[in-house]
């Protein structure tokens, strides 16, 4: 293992991403907005920086950024969740009351579904939760294995006035999503049909199901349906630890859903992903406060368990993102950090520069460990024309992939170009985030958005992949990217959030004041113009629980 | 890995302080002499005990075992999360299975 020292490990803690004060965290649970507060619950191990002894951690904020930790919301104190209080979802009923459905791992490690609700609905902090005396309300149905039945969704209304939920599972190697109707969240009727099933995808965890508008940029409440609505099915693939989604149509009459494009159905390797980096067990909720749908994602570590134990914590949550259907393409979602993140922006610097082929330009922004970067790139037209008109330039778009084409050091005609973050002066450690434009056999250009972590750290007990994917670029659009740098996490948003990449990096030299920002153009022929703004980011000062902090929050 | 002889002199050193604590001028020389055979016996049995302990230590936790052996053994072991019935939560399994630090 690498000889981590406290200075390196201390630097890895983030300034404005949600994380507990110590120990292990994973899935987001039951996120909701209630009586003026955003509530975030999460899978938490109060005893160690590794997975186990899972209970529900809890925090509140007024803006999804400045959090206050609260006492544990639910602990493993019943036979039906004694082996873990696992993931669940909240449903806000028309009268404003809340029901929480969650998976319990029983004393015999069977996965069952349980109902809980706030002890005091008048407490905006929802500090205390009551578990229904009749739990469990759902057990694995015939044909479903005891460990293949978990993570119930938020409920939505059917045309018959019932509530409907879906729960991921599998039959043999086919990933499925079971559907149940209820009127009181205590007794359920299983539908004969499945919401959806995809062969050879394995167990579906943390299924999410929600409507998106084909026309409106606002989010939709979970029960909304209609001709201008598409429905998203998202599932976390137990086998690959990747979140996949697909856009499709929901049929209320029999509780089924079909994808618009079966070739990119949920869970197959080519299907769409919220994020091409580390982003798992994600869950959305409808924020009735601002009419938007918010996406939370668990960002696990890329280092070793030993390093996590040494630093005393493990995992982050991504910055909450708004998620809507891309009304320009109609085929994919777009995600964007919630607006409230801008409240952390401090000083900023604007840059406009022409970057010739083979350039690496240091960008003077002071310490570069907490940054928000918004950038536009344009390849000079003559460079493009020259490439497209030059038959000797190999058409490589069909073969190119971020993962397997050598990363940011392999030069092509029209790329790679972008930023290198968390780089030390000598560039001995760096994390490039870049575009690569490739010519296709059809002589059309195809753009890829990538993050190369292969040289992000000298440490040898860290996973350092190259992440990324193709990013849709419509005619006339400039290439845009946004990057949030926050110590050991880097979030990239390509083309307004059509393609997102979250990376975990653990530099050993490019830390504290030695962390720098560079702009680079590794293309062979293309000259690129770059217009960008860099903000220094403040800390979110996420607070441990105390009465006066909560009072301050209330003010 | 600690060398085995690092363990032995401790018991001997424990004996030295006693011997060097001016007990030679002890008026009860006789008791002192009678104690000496007992002490010698103790030292020998301590030493034997340590050797036995150390042999046991080597037998059960040989630190020099090749990495592959560790990897082989644990590569097939299932992590806590998988045993409990949820998706893998640790990277360590990845490395042990793939042996390559850079692949996710």
Looking across the biggest beta sheet of chain A, what order are the strands in? 25-36-27-32-33-34
From the alpha carbons, calculate the radius of gyration of chain B and give it in angstroms: 25 Å
The helix count of chain A comes to 4
Number of helices of chain B: 5
| Residue share in β-strands of chain B | under 5%
> In terms of quaternary structure, what is this?
heterodimer
Instruction: Pick out the low-confidence regions of chain B.
Output: 1-36, 60-76, 97-104
Binned, the helix content of chain B reads 55-70%
**Count of extended strands of chain A:** 36
Q: Main sheet of chain B, how many strands, which sense, barrel? A: none
Q: Radius of gyration of chain A over alpha carbons?
A: 23 Å
- Principal-axis shape of chain A equals globular
Walk me through this protein's architecture.
The complex is a heterodimer of chains A (555) and B (104). Helices cover 6% and strands 45% of the residues of chain A. Chain A is mainly β and 555 residues long. In chain A, the strands form seven sheets. Chain A has a six-stranded antiparallel β-sheet. In chain A, strands 26-35-28-29-30-31 form a six-stranded antiparallel β-sheet. Chain A has a five-stranded mixed β-sheet with strand order 4-3-2-1-21. Chain B has helices at residues 8-19, 29-60, 67-76, 80-84, 92-98. In chain B, helix 1 packs antiparallel against helix 2 (29-60). Mean pLDDT of chain B is 53; it is low at 1-36, 60-76 and 97-104. The A-B interface holds A 26, 50-52, 83-84, 86, 105, 109, 111, 146-148, 150, 203, 205, 236, 238-239, 241, 280, 300-305, 454, 460-465, 467 and B 79-81, 84-92, 94-95, 101-104.
Looking at this protein, list some descriptive labels.
heterodimer, A: about 550 residues, mainly beta, six-stranded antiparallel β-sheet, 4 helices, B: about 100 residues, mainly alpha, disordered N terminus
């Amino acid at each position: 293992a690498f000889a981590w020292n406290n200075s390196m490990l201390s630097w890895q803690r983030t300034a404005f991403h949600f994380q507990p004060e110590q120990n292990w965290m994973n899935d987001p649970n039951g996120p909701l907005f209630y009586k003026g507060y955003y509530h975030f619950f999460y899978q938490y191990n109060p005893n160690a920086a590794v997975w186990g002894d899972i209970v529900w951690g809890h925090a509140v904020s007024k803006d999804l950024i400045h959090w206050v930790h609260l006492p544990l919301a639910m602990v493993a104190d019943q036979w039906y969740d004694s082996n873990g209080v696992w993931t669940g979802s909240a449903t806000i009923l028309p009268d404003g009351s809340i029901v929480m459905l969650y998976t319990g791992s029983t004393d015999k490690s069977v996965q069952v579904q349980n109902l809980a609700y706030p002890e005091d609905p008048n407490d905006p902090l929802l500090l205390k939760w009551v578990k229904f005396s009749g739990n469990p309300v759902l057990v694995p149905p015939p044909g479903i294995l005891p460990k293949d039945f978990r993570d119930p969704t938020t409920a939505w209304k059917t045309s018959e006035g019932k509530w409907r939920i879906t729960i991921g599972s599998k039959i043999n190697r086919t990933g499925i999503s079971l559907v149940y109707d209820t009127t009181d969240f205590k007794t359920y009727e299983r539908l004969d049909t499945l919401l959806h099933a995809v062969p050879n995808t394995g167990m579906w965890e943390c299924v999410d199901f929600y409507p998106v508008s084909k026309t409106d940029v606002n989010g939709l409440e979970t029960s909304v349906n209609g001709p201008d609505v598409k429905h998203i099915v998202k599932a976390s693939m137990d086998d690959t630890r990747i979140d996949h989604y697909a856009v499709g149509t929901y049929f209320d009459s029999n509780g089924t859903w079909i994808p618009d494009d079966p070739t990119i159905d949920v869970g197959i390797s080519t299907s769409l992903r919220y994020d091409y980096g580390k982003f798992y067990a994600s869950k959305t909720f409808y924020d009735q406060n601002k009419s938007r749908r918010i996406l939370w994602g668990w960002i696990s570590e890329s280092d070793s368990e030993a390093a996590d134990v040494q630093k005393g914590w493990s995992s982050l949550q991504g910055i909450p993102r708004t998620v809507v259907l891309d009304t320009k393409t109609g085929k994919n979602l777009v995600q964007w950090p919630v607006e409230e993140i801008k409240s952390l922006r401090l000083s900023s610097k604007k840059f406009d520069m022409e970057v010739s082929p083979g350039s690496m330009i240091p960008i003077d922004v002071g310490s570069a460990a907490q940054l928000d970067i918004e950038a536009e790139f344009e390849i000079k037209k003559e460079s493009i024309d020259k490439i497209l008109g030059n038959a000797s330039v190999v058409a490589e778009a069909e073969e190119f992939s971020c993962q397997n084409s050598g990363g940011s050091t392999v030069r092509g005609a029209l790329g790679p170009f972008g930023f290198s973050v968390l780089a030390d002066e000598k560039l001995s450690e760096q994390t490039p985030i870049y575009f690569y434009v490739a010519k296709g056999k059809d002589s059309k250009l195809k753009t890829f958005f990538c993050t190369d972590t292969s040289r992000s750290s000298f440490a040898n007990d860290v996973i350092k992949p190259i992440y990324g994917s193709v990013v849709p670029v419509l005619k006339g659009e400039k290439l845009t990217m946004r990057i949030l740098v926050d110590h050991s996490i880097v979030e990239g948003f390509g083309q307004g959030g059509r393609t997102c990449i979250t990376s975990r990096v653990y530099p050993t030299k490019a830390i504290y004041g030695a962390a720098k920002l560079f702009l680079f153009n590794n293309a062979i022929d293309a000259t690129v113009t770059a217009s960008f703004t860099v903000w220094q980011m403040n800390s979110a000062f996420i607070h441990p629980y105390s009465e006066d902090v909560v009072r301050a929050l209330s003010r | 890995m600690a060398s085995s002889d690092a363990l032995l002199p401790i018991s001997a050193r424990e004996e030295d302080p006693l011997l060097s604590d001016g007990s030679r001028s002890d008026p009860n020389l006789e008791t002192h002499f009678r104690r000496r055979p007992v002490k010698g016996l103790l030292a020998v049995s301590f030493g034997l005990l340590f050797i036995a302990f150390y042999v046991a230590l080597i037998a059960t936790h040989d630190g020099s075992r090749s990495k592959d052996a560790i990897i082989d053994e644990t590569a097939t072991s299932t992590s806590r999360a998988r045993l409990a019935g949820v998706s893998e939560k640790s990277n360590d399994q990845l490395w042990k299975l793939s042996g390559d630090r850079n692949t996710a």
